[in-house]
From TrEMBL:
<keyword id="KW-0210">Decarboxylase</keyword>
<feature type="binding site">
    <location>
        <position position="283"/>
    </location>
    <ligand>
        <name>substrate</name>
    </ligand>
</feature>
<comment type="similarity">
    <text>In the C-terminal section; belongs to the OMP decarboxylase family.</text>
</comment>
<dbReference type="InterPro" id="IPR014732">
    <property type="entry name" value="OMPdecase"/>
</dbReference>
<feature type="active site" description="For OMPdecase activity">
    <location>
        <position position="316"/>
    </location>
</feature>
<dbReference type="InterPro" id="IPR000836">
    <property type="entry name" value="PRTase_dom"/>
</dbReference>
<dbReference type="InterPro" id="IPR013785">
    <property type="entry name" value="Aldolase_TIM"/>
</dbReference>
<feature type="binding site">
    <location>
        <position position="437"/>
    </location>
    <ligand>
        <name>substrate</name>
    </ligand>
</feature>
<dbReference type="InterPro" id="IPR011060">
    <property type="entry name" value="RibuloseP-bd_barrel"/>
</dbReference>
<feature type="binding site">
    <location>
        <position position="261"/>
    </location>
    <ligand>
        <name>substrate</name>
    </ligand>
</feature>
<dbReference type="InterPro" id="IPR029057">
    <property type="entry name" value="PRTase-like"/>
</dbReference>
<feature type="active site" description="For OMPdecase activity">
    <location>
        <position position="319"/>
    </location>
</feature>
<protein>
    <recommendedName>
        <fullName>Uridine 5'-monophosphate synthase</fullName>
        <ecNumber>2.4.2.10</ecNumber>
        <ecNumber>4.1.1.23</ecNumber>
    </recommendedName>
</protein>
<feature type="binding site">
    <location>
        <position position="458"/>
    </location>
    <ligand>
        <name>substrate</name>
    </ligand>
</feature>
<dbReference type="GO" id="GO:0004588">
    <property type="term" value="F:orotate phosphoribosyltransferase activity"/>
</dbReference>
<dbReference type="GO" id="GO:0006207">
    <property type="term" value="P:'de novo' pyrimidine nucleobase biosynthetic process"/>
</dbReference>
<feature type="binding site">
    <location>
        <position position="379"/>
    </location>
    <ligand>
        <name>substrate</name>
    </ligand>
</feature>
Length: 487
């Protein structure tokens, strides 16, 4: 038998006082489970409770989590959270379980103020639903929550689920290791262990729908105090293209779109290969390409698939619905057949969106594999878009949310986090081009103006080393996003 580390000892104690049980249990969700974890019996067992709280606190410190307050998830983790707070003299807050109205601050007991950092303490993580419910209440009061410390991870996908909501879970032990300890200590048989593991592997869990809906509502009503992570935004979005784009942004750690305003197809293809690894979108003005043919499109599409980026034709449709439908789907370019993203001005009214959407539907396919950005404000000097224009753009984006994925804008049009904001007029070195273009830096666009994606043209295409320069822009823009998250 292995020597008893404090954690082993704790697992063994938990088995003894039936905080870990084996049998046939019907869970809240109605499914049968061969294992049941519940640390409530620990409430009147001060020794293991003290040990657990010490180990949890060590975990908080070892994980380098910055915090001002500790919050236990009601009810079962309240004892351990209190124990940590009393022993370590940390301020504690609690969330009332009965009150569902996130708008009222009485939901949280204990002194706190917006901006305070809170670490969550939980006993067991299954799907992560209880943790998320607590996180929602805390975030809606302006508290900053990024980490949770848990005793046992049931390994049913809860840790992954939480990542999508911007929460990193640090567990003391996972259930499979706990099972190994119990076999070593001859408390359960090898067969019990392997059967339990088979059941765990076959039963991954999702966050409870009701809580996902509450989270969605909370975000949509803008009661969260800051822009969410791309992961969370992907979960929030209802448009598949937005989800794919946000997921790609996280995967490539890039929020960079390159504007390739070159006039020969070979130049474009070569540049695409150079900058492909650093970008998530390649933006074109297809009407400036002198030697356009569909073979070029096939080649570009192959590069986009291989290097994983989306294609955006910056066509800025602006005519009546009937005309834009033809301009989008027909003619020499047949834009709708290859461009994942297009954009439109709303000067002619929402018929432009009706027309564009109908053109994709006519292709006999769902229009949701294509997305449209509304031009809400422009980077060019003295442009005629007044202050009410972005507001109208937002109004129509909501009505056409199955097709509109966001905005081209110089600042955020709306706090509605379903929509992406992409900002052109970005350059590291210069402030303008002598023809009315006005530039800001990636830090300004992402950090101060709330852009999700920066669009960079000549800053990259005109550089001596486009590949290296694209990486530099990617790094600056992504760092600005990471920085924004930590504010
Ligand atoms: P630049 O080389 O980084 O200046 O290129 C910017 C690109 O973005 C270029 O293709 C413009 O057509 C496009 N653009 C813009 O600069 N400003 C706007 O407000 C809009 C588009 Br909308």
């Amino acid at each position: 038998m292995s020597s008893a580390t404090p954690l082993r000892q704790l697992v063994s104690d938990c088995y003894e006082f039936k905080a870990i049980k084996f049998g046939d249990f019907v869970l809240k969700t109605g499914i049968h489970s061969p294992i049941y974890l519940d640390i409530r019996p620990m409430v009147n067992r001060p020794k293991p409770l003290k040990l657990l709280s010490e180990l949890m606190y060590e975990k908080i410190i070892a994980s380098g989590i910055g915090y001002d307050l500790i919050c236990g998830v009601p009810y079962s983790a309240l004892s351990v959270a209190s124990s940590i707070c009393v022993q370590k003299e940390v301020n504690m807050i609690t969330k009332r379980k009965e009150n569902k109205d996130y708008g009222t601050k009485q939901l949280i007991e204990g002194q706190h103020k917006p901006g305070d950092r809170v670490v969550i303490v939980e006993d067991i993580i299954s799907s992560g639903s209880s943790i998320l419910e607590t996180v929602l209440a805390l975030r809606s009061a302006g508290l900053v929550v990024t980490d949770a410390v848990v005793f046992i991870d049931r390994q049913q996908n809860g840790v992954n689920n939480m990542l999508e909501y911007g929460i990193t879970v640090h567990s003391l032990i996972d259930v499979k290791t706990a099972l190994e300890y119990l076999v070593d200590d001859q408390k359960i048989s090898e067969q019990q262990r392997s059967e339990t593991i088979a059941w765990i592997n076959a039963n991954p869990l999702r966050i409870n729908d009701e809580i996902v809906n509450e989270w969605r509502l909370l975000c949509l009503e803008n009661r969260t105090t800051k822009l969410l992570s791309y992961e969370e935004r992907s979960r929030l979005s209802t448009h598949p293209l937005t989800q794919q784009l946000l997921d790609l942004m996280v995967k490539k750690r890039s929020n960079l779109c390159v504007a390739v305003d070159l006039i020969r197809s070979q130049q474009i293809l070569e540049l695409a290969k150079e900058v492909g690894p650093a970008i998530v979108i390649l933006k074109l003005h297809i009407d400036i390409v002198e030697d356009f043919d569909h073979q070029f499109i096939e080649q570009l599409t192959a590069i986009a698939e291989e290097m994983k980026f989306f294609i955006f034709e910056d066509r800025k449709f602006a005519d009546i619905g009937q005309t834009v439908a033809l301009q989008y789907g027909k003619g020499v370019h047949r834009i709708s057949s290859w461009s994942h993203i297009v954009n439109a001005h709303l000067v002619s009214g929402p018929g432009v969106l009706e027309g564009l959407r109908s053109a994709v539907q006519q292709d006999g396919d769902s229009h949701q594999h294509r997305g449209c950005l509304l031009v809400a404000s422009m980077s060019s000097k003295d442009n005629l878009m007044n202050a009410s224009y972005p507001k109208s753009a937002y109004k129509w984006s909501q009505k056409y949310a199955d097709f509109v994925i966001g905005f081209i804008s110089q600042s955020r049009v709306s706090a509605d986090q379903r929509f992406l904001h992409m900002t052109p007029g970005v350059h590291i070195d210069v402030s303008g081009d002598g023809l009315g273009q006005q530039y800001v830096t990636p830090e300004e666009a992402i950090g101060k103006r709330g852009a999700d994606v920066v669009i960079v043209g000549r800053g990259i295409t005109g550089a001596a080393d486009p590949r290296g320069t694209a990486h530099l822009y990617r790094q600056k823009a992504y760092e600005a996003y990471v920085q924004r998250l930590s504010l």
